[in-house]
Amino acid sequence: MVEERSGSFPLGVKWFLLNKLFQMRPAEIARMEGVKNPSGVRGMIIRVSDQLRCGEISLFEKDPEEAEAAKAKLDAQRKKRRDRYARKKQQKAP
Hints:
The protein is an all-alpha fold. It folds into 2 domains: 1-60; 62-94. It has 5 helices and no strands. The chain has helices at 2-6, 11-22, 26-33, 38-54, 64-92. Helix 2 packs across helix 4 and helix 3 (26-33) packs across helix 4.
């Protein structure tokens, strides 16, 4: 039922998510999926990780405006955190 609503993930992305979100080892994923060679699962996880890092694939569809708004929000939160840390550090200084 969930796959009908959201579509299905490519196998490599599914294995990557199982590995990263649930800390499942490639051997566990291979056993669960009925794959005989866990090194193939490990290789696919590494490949998907590299593709995500370089921007070849994305887990979420987003338009540029949403991405910019999310980045601005994150930057504002980081600035607040840095400012709070700096104030605490000044208060502790003799």
